[in-house]
Design goal:
The complex is a heterodimer of chains A (373) and B (67). Chain A contains 19 helices and seven strands. With 373 residues, chain A is of the alpha/beta class. In chain A, strand 2, helix 14 and strand 3 form a beta-alpha-beta unit. Chain B is an all-alpha fold and 67 residues long. Helices cover 42% and strands 0% of the residues of chain B. The longest helix of chain B has 18 residues. The chains are: A alpha/beta (373), B mainly alpha (67). The structure holds iron/sulfur cluster (2 copies). The site of one iron/sulfur cluster has 13 residues of chain A, from helix 2 and helix 4.
């Protein structure tokens, strides 16, 4: 991202970005304002040697508040591409297992990633709707130690879609969407994965691709569209789709005792895609469920503290614990989110602490309340 | 590996003590035979992608085919 002269002139003054940044809040030496300043005046080679450019969460809070609309996360992402070429690489979390899994998916192989769907419901090879499952089958094995089952979310999605009379395409050929590769500055890997996904979707004949992961949704909507031009299919996030189809679906519900919940806006869904209403509408449609808002929600929501499976740190943990405490302060019994990674991060942060707030994904929560048989 | 669609027999872990030379040789031989039977490594077109770019350019110099 090239800054315009107007942006360069205006910037370096207000510091709203640094004041809004969850990383700066924990590490005063991290400052998006100063990174921009240095990039404008220092030798670019020096800037891309610094480790700090891996610490941004690309949560977009700074961007949403910057008076001259400097898209810092995108600006920083491009610095990362240059940094990688110089051998300045991020610290990968979980020993790089997620990076390796997505790397292996760039090869021409047929995965075996749909076994879960055979028991959960009906799906097909071709059709109008493609359900982009994303990394959930891999999260299922990687995050067992958190007692989480990310595939329960995928199963819930399939059951809800089946209930609406939709048998979506689910494919063994689907690849990682490439979001993390892109934000780690590895554009080559991103493009390889993106091309493979475009081929898979084209072969399915789908006109609509449904996402239950905000990162996949955001990446298709923005980065795939940038790479391939207008996409030959519609990209929808499942909460939008359900909110639109809700009245036709004639769902009936079963009650549940504890029903006060709070909703955590994932950055890619809220601030970066502007989708705030539909998840709230779905929760409001559930009888006996009361949604209470956290102090910082919607455009001010706080990031879940880690991004692209890298640079997980004490800063991530305190950001997460802060968020959990904010959720607890609402008095809600469950924290609901619409992103599998938020769920993983916010659950992980509670390990070994006296915090014990269940974090659920919205589709599992809906599937528990909607009568499916 | 199962999820990724990679034949699990490609990964083999065996403990062989220093005194068991014959066992070591037999193990390697049968492994090589198996790998020949399984054919090309399905990941051969993936493996250079994410490597540190400096290391990668070195490797490409040595192995122009990218094998
Ligand atoms: S908020 Fe925008 S204008 Fe203000 S210092 Fe940050 S980048 Fe510059
Ligand atoms: S995108 Fe988020 S983490 Fe990155 S600099 Fe902006 S506010 Fe900080």
């Amino acid at each position: 991202m090239q800054l315009t002269q107007h942006q360069i002139d205006y910037c370096m003054e207000c510091g709203v970005c640094t004041g809004s940044c969850p990383v700066s809040r924990n590490w005063s030496e991290f400052s998006p304002r100063q990174i921009i300043k240095r990039t404008c005046i220092e030798n670019p080679e020096e800037v891309t040697k610094r480790r700090e450019l891996w610490q941004c969460l690309s949560c977009g809070r700074c961007y949403s508040r910057c008076p001259v609309e400097i898209d810092f996360p995108e600006f920083n992402r491009q610095q990362r591409v240059a940094a990688r070429l110089q051998g300045n690489l991020p610290q990968e979390s979980h020993h790089g297992v997620m990076q390796t899994i997505s790397l292996l998916q760039t090869a021409k192989l047929t995965q075996s990633r749909t076994a879960w769907a055979r028991d959960a419901g009906k799906f097909s090879d071709k059709g109008d709707y493609f359900y982009f499952v994303g990394c959930l089958p891999y999260f299922e094995v990687t995050f067992r130690y958190l007692n989480l089952s990310p595939l329960t979310s995928a199963k819930s999605v399939l059951k809800i879609l089946n209930k609406m009379g939709i048998e979506p395409v689910i494919s063994n050929e689907e690849r990682c969407c490439g979001h993390d590769a892109l934000w780690s500055g590895d554009e080559e890997k991103f493009e390889k994965l993106a091309k493979l996904n475009m081929e898979v979707i084209a072969a399915s004949g789908a006109k609509t691709v449904i996402f239950s992961c905000p990162e996949g949704y955001f990446t298709f909507k923005n980065n795939y569209a940038k790479l391939f031009g207008n996409l030959p299919f519609e990209v929808v996030y499942l909460t939008e789709f359900l909110a639109k189809e809700w009245n036709n679906a004639n769902f009936t519900f079963s009650g549940n005792g504890s029903s006060s919940v709070t909703f955590h806006d994932p950055c890619r869904l809220g601030r970066l895609s502007g989708l705030y209403e539909s998840p709230r509408k779905l929760l409001a449609n559930l009888p006996e469920t009361k949604l209470v808002e956290m102090e910082r929600s919607l455009i001010n929501a706080q990031c879940c503290g880690t991004s692209a499976w890298m640079e997980c740190s004490s800063c991530s943990k305190s950001t997460q614990v802060e968020r959990i405490n904010e959720a607890r302060d609402t008095g809600a019994g469950t924290l609901i989110t619409a992103c599998p990674k938020c769920q993983i991060h916010l659950t992980c942060a509670q390990q070994g602490t006296d915090l014990n707030l269940p974090v659920k994904d919205i589709f599992t929560y809906l599937a528990e309340r909607i009568k499916l048989d | 590996m199962r999820l990724l669609g990679i034949d699990e027999r490609r990964l083999r872990l065996k403990w062989v003590s220093a005194s068991e030379g014959a066992l070591f040789a037999a193990e390697i031989q049968s492994y090589v035979e198996l790998l020949k039977e399984l054919g090309d490594n399905p990941l051969s077109d993936a493996h250079l992608c994410q490597m540190n770019p400096m290391m990668r350019s070195e490797m490409q110099k040595e192995e122009p085919a990218g094998a």
